[in-house]
Design goal:
alpha+beta, two-stranded antiparallel sheet
């Protein structure tokens, strides 16, 4: 092999190993959660700080695609203390954000909105990605489900991230929903997370 071929081969091996590592890690987490080995421990913590930690974990991947991640109107939500498991809720946010980065084209934006409602906090994560067909909206939180679109098939993934995210949120007494535009005129998805102030 030439030096260039060696580099390409090593890069491909690295990508494959990283993908396998992520899949094994996700499967282990799902198994541990379903068998009760993982206990969600909700303690008072700053919810914005948890969300910012998740953003920081995906920032490098976003920067590689020149994707900007923007917070909208978070001043009045600074130091908002909500009982939650920082580690696992951060993991849930990371899964949503990684998908947004993965399925968005270069030079786009991901917008995050936090809205204080009466009994729960609403967090919206909106991307300008490929979108989700209407008939797949109810499937994407199922274990191992991946879309049929060519762009999805060409992108590495295991189909367990959003399933794990839903499990984590439900164990916080919250939920996750999605709305999406899919077609030639407009694309993009908005994931909506709702977390109660008390549970």
């Amino acid at each position: 092999l030439t030096q260039a071929e060696e580099r390409e081969f090593l890069q491909q091996c690295t990508r494959q190993l990283t993908g396998l590592e992520e899949l094994v890690g996700a499967l282990v987490n799902i198994s541990r959660m379903e068998t009760g080995m993982i206990q969600i421990r909700r303690e008072p913590a700053d919810i914005l700080e948890t969300l910012v930690s998740a953003v920081n974990r995906v920032l490098l991947k976003a920067e590689e695609k020149q994707i900007d991640i923007e917070f909208e109107k978070t001043e009045d939500l600074a130091e908002m203390i909500i009982p939650h498991d920082v580690k696992w809720l951060c993991e849930a946010f990371i899964n949503i954000l990684e998908n947004a980065v993965k399925y968005s084209p270069q030079n786009t934006k991901i917008r995050i909105r936090m809205i204080r409602l009466i009994t729960f906090l609403r967090i919206e994560i909106e991307d300008q990605g490929i979108g989700i067909p209407r008939d797949a909206l109810h499937k994407i939180f199922q274990r191992f489900y991946r879309g049929e679109a060519e762009q999805v098939r060409q992108t590495e993934g295991s189909g367990v991230g959003l399933y794990l995210t839903r499990e984590i949120l439900e164990r916080h007494g919250g939920n996750i929903t999605v709305s999406s535009q899919y077609g030639e005129k407009r694309q993009g998805s908005t994931f909506v997370v709702q977390i109660p102030y008390a549970y």
